[in-house]
Amino acid sequence: MKNKIILLVEDNQDDEILTIRALSKNNILNRVVVARDGAEALDYLFGRGDYADRDPTDLPELVLLDINLPKLSGLEVLKQIRNDPRTRLLPVVMLTTSNEERDRLGSYQLGANSFIRKPVDFSQFSEAIRQLGVYWLVLNQGPPHEQKN
Amino acid sequence: MNDHPGHKREIFSYRRVIAAMLAVLLLILALVNFTLLKQQRRAHLAQTETQISYQLAAAAAFLTEPLLKYRFADVEEFLRLLFTTHEDVLLLEAHSPSGHLLSRFSREGGSPFVISRRQEVLYQGRHLLTLSMQKDYAQTEAILIEMRNRLLAVSIMITAVLGLMLWVVFRRLAIEPLEQEISRRRRAEQEMAATNRELDAFAYSISHDLRAPLRGIDGFSLALQEDYEEKLDAEGKDYIRRIRSGCVRMGLLIDDMLQLSRLSRSEIKRGRVDLSALAGEITAELRKSAPERQVLFNIEPGVTVEADPVLLRAVLENLLSNAWKFTAKITTPEISFGRIMEDGEQICFVRDNGAGFDMTYADKLFTPFQRLHTVREFEGTGIGLATVQRIIHRHGGRIWAESQVNKGAVFYFTV
């Protein structure tokens, strides 16, 4: 379980610290890679730009994706993830402040696996992160990884 | 929003009215022309007939003497002269009383308009000769056709000019104001849509940008409490608790404000709403939220209205959960939903026997963020009733309340 990577796409540093804190508080000790905008997230996933030396077949176990991001929005990132055969099956959880219906609808239409609204109350947020970790990293049987040659 | 087709229909019907009027006018003119031409034709024909009879009578009178004197060469000569000088005469024949053809002059006419007459030459009752003549009146017909064409042209011109005048008048009187009204409304709608889009963007950024720092404050307060627990005394922990409850409350305020702005902007789609059924669902949810509470619900069945189902649900949710909230501290809580009829108007009500309020402040009841109880007594953001009032007003209805402190409250509304 430890070697499974979580990709956290989050531009707000407070939220980043709090999310990582919530993960560790709940004993989710996976390595967390943080991408600070949509473009960086895609670079990481597809091994481009700053991440050119990364093996793109080594996918994270879970992507936590904020919707309001600089450059590419979370919805656009999700769209590109779903359009690429390499990342089409990657579990993506939208983690967002907004509770706009169109964001939720848009996320599910583009193939998000879950949509979680970050509550103001941190205890609730922490609980949501805990359940998220338990479900996606422990209970859920992810899609089979492609064989590396 | 979609009332343009009505105007278009009206303009369309103006066009139709004008077209129908012109058609009738053209028909009347055609009828008049037809009658006129018929009369003209009859007159012309009568004239031609008179002319031919007159010519034959004159010829008979002139021929009597030569015939009596057997000067047949003169008769022949006279007939030739008559024939050659009148080009419209197609055939001129003279027969003896026994029917024997004496002389015949003819020319090719080719016209279908031919008139024939015969005249007997008599002297003191004695039959001397029979003259017969065929005359071509195609020329007369040509004049008539020319006349018909002119009448037709004039009729069409009259109709066209009159139609144009009518159209101009109608345009000025009826269509132009309508079109101005349409474009004015369209502009207003576009402005409204733009404003709504701006408001949407504004609400969206509020929901995101105001909540994010709030979550930070709450999260780091909790981190402080958890990670530095041994360094904080009871007072310090209480401060942190207060910071965090402030955050949560502000989160609720933001959510309620957003709901208020969203509900007051969304389009109203009216349909039949069974308020009794809705009230049943909502009270069931309330019961589930606090199963330990014993509340008596009285819901009058069969109360329906013509309104937006989503918005009316928000109305009942707010009123019933208010009633639920304000009956929390009494021993035998009772909440009713029903209707009364007044002057043929259906007035729905939600009644409770809870805390109630002082009627002195009744006018502040529906003001956003205005509360008649402290948060410590009863939680809430003070936006629920403002939302309810806005929904009712958007339906063109009224809402008011009656209450006495500690004797419960009744909220009445019409839609």
Offer a concise description of the structure.
The complex is a heterodimer of chains A (149) and B (415). Chain A is an alpha/beta fold.
Q: DSSP helix count of chain B?
A: 7
Could you list the spans of chain A in which at least 5 consecutive residues all have pLDDT below 50?
none
Q: CATH superfamily of chain A, called what? A: Response regulator
The fraction of residues in strands of chain B falls at 15-25%
Instruction: Please tell me the CATH architecture of the domain at 268-413 in chain B by its name.
Output: 2-Layer Sandwich
> Quick check: average pLDDT of chain B?
85
- CATH topology label of chain A: Rossmann fold
Give the tally of β-strands of chain A: 5
Structural class of chain B: alpha+beta
Order of helices and strands of chain A: EHEHEHEHEH
User: What is the CATH topology assignment of the domain at 268-413 in chain B?
Assistant: Heat Shock Protein 90
Low-confidence stretches of chain B: none
Largest interface: A-B, 20 and 23 residues
Spatial arrangement of strands, main beta sheet of chain A: 2-1-3-4-5
> Quick one: CATH class of the domain at 268-413 in chain B?
Alpha Beta
The percent range for helix content of chain B is 55-70%
Radius of gyration of chain A equals 14 Å
CATH class of chain A: Alpha Beta
Strand order of the largest sheet of chain B: 6-8-9-11-10
Major beta sheet of chain B, specifics? 5 strands, mixed
Shape of chain A: globular
Produce the secondary structure layout.
The complex is a heterodimer of chains A (149) and B (415).
Chain A: E1 5-9, H1 13-25, E2 31-35, H2 38-46, E3 62-65, H3 74-83, E4 92-96, H4 101-109, E5 114-117, H5 122-139
Parallel strand pairs in A: 1-2, 1-3, 3-4, 4-5
Chain B: H1 4-68, H2 72-85, E1 89-95, E2 101-106, E3 114-123, E4 126-136, H3 138-227, H4 234-265, E5 271-274, H5 275-289, E6 296-299, E7 304-307, H6 309-326, E8 334-342, E9 345-352, H7 384-394, E10 399-403, E11 409-413
Parallel strand pairs in B: 6-8
Antiparallel strand pairs in B: 1-2, 1-4, 3-4, 5-7, 8-9, 9-11, 10-11
